[in-house]
Amino acid sequence: MAVVEQVTNSIGQSYTEPYGQSWADGREPEGLQSDNDQRTMFTARSRRVALLSRVVEKEILPRLAVSRASAGADTAAAHMTTESDTIELVRLLLGDEDDGAGTFIHLLELRGATPSSLYLGIVTDAARRLGQLWEDDRCDFARVTISLGRLQQVVRALSPRFQAAAVTPSTHPDTILLLPAPAEQHTLGLVILSEFFLREGWHVIGGPVSAGPVSGGCDAAATVGRTWVDVAGFSLGSASRVEGLTACISSVRKASKNRYLFVMVGGPLFLEHPELVARVGADTTARDATAAVRQARGLLTMRAAAE
Fold first, then answer.
1. Which residues of 53-75 are buried (b: 16+ CB within 10 A; e: fewer)?
2. What own/partner pairs with CB < 8 Å and gap ≥ 24 does 122-126 have?
């Protein structure tokens, strides 16, 4: 019960009612003059807290238990790959053979690595190393682009085995829009992220295409204006594109059919500078794909409990 109260309080403190009226911390909105009004609002708040406690106990905690067990298994499997394995994968990606990387990944699976641990471990590390090679001018753009294309083929080849553990989607699944920031060129992380959301029963729209042009309107705004979206997720790899993402998120919020749209952002830049999350107008970020799925589900569960 103490865990339930702790999680409930944590969620409640982070949720803000529309128009900035907070109920979770006990502060009542301005304008409530009569005792009857105050008693009514206090009763409503008590019911919401009770409902939120039940949701935490019945929904969030079981999901956390399953997620942590799965994460533990994936972490153990990830330890089966080494730094030398990552170096070898990058070498194969940069080599002359198109199928060398895929064959190597298959050998790692035979050693016990799971698709999930490969996604979160060696595949992500290899993509980061390729990007670093480009930034350091140790590889030209064309070669890195070809290598990243091969890495995306590896991700797609792992997909059927990864999705074999997918949950049965509901009749009306929650929808997430996944897009790179305007002019962002690093999109492999979105491909991997979409795999995790799909496996958890989400309806995923968008993909590794730009959220909008370098200047002008935001294509993502048009999408949320005509399609109901529960969560919008954007990836960002370069600090030079922060302002473009800020303008895009602002446009998305204004155009959204869902007035309670949640916005998530991801990329190493936000982990290094978490203050940028609020600066671009997002609600949260996550350290990896599994954490992103948990946070997105938690945000929607919190919203449902507060309604």
1. bebbbeebeeeeeebeeebeebe
2. 122/78, 122/81, 122/85, 122/86, 122/89, 123/151, 123/154, 123/155, 123/188, 123/192, 124/189, 124/192, 124/288, 125/86, 126/86, 126/89, 126/90, 126/93, 126/151
CA 76 to chain centre: 23
With the C-alpha atoms ordered 270, 273, 277, 280, is the resulting torsion angle positive or negative? negative
The two counts, helices (H) then strands (E), for the chain are: 14, 5
pLDDT category of residue 211 using cuts at 50, 70 and 90: low
C-alpha 195/C-alpha 180 separation (Å) is 16
Q: Which domains does the chain have, with CATH numbers?
A: 2-60 (no CATH), 80-163 (1.10.1240), 168-306 (3.40.50.280)
**Residue pair 89/104 in contact by the 8 Å Cβ criterion:** yes
DSSP state at residue 171: S
CB-based contact 174:203 (threshold 8 Å): yes
- 80: its two tokens: 């089966």
Q: Which residues fall within 8 angstroms of residue 141, CB to CB, at 6 or more apart?
A: 134
The answer to whether 196 and 292 are in contact (CB under 8 A) is yes
Q: Output the pTM of the full model.
A: 0.71
Please provide the DSSP assignment of 212-277 as one string. S-SSS--HHHHHHHHS--SEEEEE---GGGHHHHHHHHHHHHHH-S-TT-EEEEESHHHHH-THHH
Specify whether the CB–CB gap between 69 and 32 falls below 8 A: no
DSSP secondary-structure letter at 18? G
Q: Which two tokens stand for residue 227?
A: 């399609």
pLDDT, tens only, 159-198: 999 999 887 767 778 999 999 999 888 788 899 999 999 9
**Distance, CA of 291 to CA of 123 (rounded, Å):** 17
181 near 245, Cβ under 8 Å? yes
